[in-house]
């Protein structure tokens, strides 16, 4: 059974401090923050199965089970929620249309197995090749583009009910600066409550599905399960469409680990291999029974950044909540009734926080943006992500996260090779030297 030491007095987090993964606040606060993590992941986790036609309750069940599995595999040292990955939307949609849900699930299982295999390599070969493959400028770009790529998703929800979305967003920001201690840490949760109540008064909440389930007495029930199909002739051609998704999941997992390490302890980076193994196992498990593929959730990084609570205890709470919610169709529909305006307001803040964490990786590692290679690595990747670039060949499509990640890797490594061969000085020269005890002021900075 995992154990945690109580942080400080168990109620407050002092300025400049964070609650580390092996610490926790008192249980009421921990449960409330765990509930906030459920709220944070809910909209995005439900959206993927809605778009792909997968059972929503099944996806929720395996996101909770996958989160608990992740905590076990990473030995309770890496806080993360495993929610539905947007990277699966395009291949699942294409595979379901051409070969059926069973073949799409086979593709999800294949991605999970391959991701776990990469994780074993990282675990036994070390992080050296990962760090060379994704140095700070690349890692920061990938973390940032994951957040900024979701901006159109936030805007799509926001514009459906801009007044409600604005009230929700203002509430989140206001609660974060108005209150101190516990209330300030759950500003996102409070913002959702305010937005939901406001939406009720504006008659934007639809209870039709909830009322129907209550009338039928369906308070408790198992989700719908489906099995993957590995024997149909078209399945193996479909699986090929899923393989590029592995690149996205590697980028998201490595970026997640780096983000948490930046905010807590550099030793967290040692969990990278286990994180990949755990996400691969959770994805394969979900695909084996009809759930969506999983990934470490950036939305919950935003919650951790806002609350400064990185305790894995909160994620045990979130995982258990998700499993319990998946077993109640009524409760699931109540959460699903959160209107688009509320989700738009909350995700506007959360997705932006993900992008800021990527930029913080650049700042903390003193990336030298006077070097053209570093400039274009970040610039091109972010524009691709924000604009939502896509590349398509028939039914096969690559999304902006894949293209942006690939662009960052290619520009950095190929650009460095050419610049060093030509000795132009455009290559990455390493971290900028610190100036003064605290970085110095403008009058102390050397002329560059």
Automatic annotation (TrEMBL):
Recorded topology in the membrane? Multi-pass membrane protein
Q: Which UniProt keywords apply?
A: Membrane, Transmembrane, Transmembrane helix, Transport
| A Pfam family annotated for this UniProt entry | Xan_ur_permease
Residue ranges spanning the membrane: these are 54-73, 80-99, 105-130, 137-155, 161-179, 186-202, 230-251, 313-332, 338-361, 373-390, 396-414
Compartments, record wording: Membrane
Question: What main location does UniProt list?
Answer: membrane
Recorded family membership: Belongs to the nucleobase:cation symporter-2 (NCS2) (TC 2.A.40) family.
Q: What is this protein's name?
A: Uracil-xanthine permease family protein
Naturally occurring in which organism (per UniProt): Microbacterium koreense
């Amino acid at each position: 059974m995992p154990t945690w030491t109580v942080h400080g007095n168990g109620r407050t987090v002092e300025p400049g401090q964070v609650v580390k993964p092996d610490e926790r606040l008192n249980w009421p606060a921990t449960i409330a923050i765990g509930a906030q993590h459920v709220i944070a992941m809910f909209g995005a986790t439900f959206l993927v199965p809605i778009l792909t036609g997968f059972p929503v309750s099944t996806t929720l069940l395996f996101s909770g089970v996958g989160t608990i599995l992740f905590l076990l595999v990473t030995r309770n040292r890496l806080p993360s929620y495993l929610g539905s990955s947007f990277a699966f939307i395009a291949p699942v949609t294409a595979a379901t249309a051409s070969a059926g849900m069973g073949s799409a699930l086979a593709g999800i299982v294949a991605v999970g197995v391959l991701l776990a295999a990469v994780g074993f390599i990282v675990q036994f070969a070390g992080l050296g090749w990962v760090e060379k493959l994704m140095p700070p400028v690349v890692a920061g770009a990938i973390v940032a583009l994951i957040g900024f790529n979701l901006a159109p998703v936030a805007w799509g929800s926001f514009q459906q009910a801009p007044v409600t979305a604005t009230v929700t967003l203002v509430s989140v920001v206001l609660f974060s600066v108005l209150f101190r201690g516990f209330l300030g840490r759950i500003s996102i949760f409070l913002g959702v409550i305010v937005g939901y109540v406001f939406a009720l008064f504006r008659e934007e909440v639809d209870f039709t599905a909830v009322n129907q389930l209550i009338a039928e007495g369906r308070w408790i029930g198992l989700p719908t399960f489906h099995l993957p199909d590995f024997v149909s002739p078209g399945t193996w051609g479909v699986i090929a469409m899923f393989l590029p998704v592995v690149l996205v999941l590697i980028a998201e997992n490595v970026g997640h680990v780096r983000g948490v390490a930046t905010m807590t302890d550099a030793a967290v980076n040692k969990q990278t291999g286990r994180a990949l193994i755990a996400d691969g196992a959770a994805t394969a498990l979900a695909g084996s029974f009809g759930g969506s593929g999983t990934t470490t959730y950036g939305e919950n990084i935003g919650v951790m950044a806002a609350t400064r609570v990185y305790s894995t205890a909160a994620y045990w709470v979130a995982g258990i909540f998700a499993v319990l919610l998946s077993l109640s169709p009524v409760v699931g529909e109540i959460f699903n009734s959160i209107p688009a305006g509320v989700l738009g307001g909350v995700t506007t803040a959360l997705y932006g926080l993900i992008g800021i964490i990527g930029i913080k990786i650049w700042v903390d590692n003193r990336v030298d943006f006077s070097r053209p290679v570093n400039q274009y690595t970040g610039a091109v990747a972010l524009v691709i992500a924000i604009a939502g670039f896509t590349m398509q060949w028939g039914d096969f499509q690559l999304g902006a996260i894949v293209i942006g990640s690939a662009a960052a890797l290619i520009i950095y490594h190929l650009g460095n090779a050419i610049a060093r061969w030509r000795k132009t000085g455009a290559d990455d020269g390493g971290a900028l030297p610190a100036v003064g005890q605290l970085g110095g002021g403008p009058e102390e900075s050397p002329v560059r």
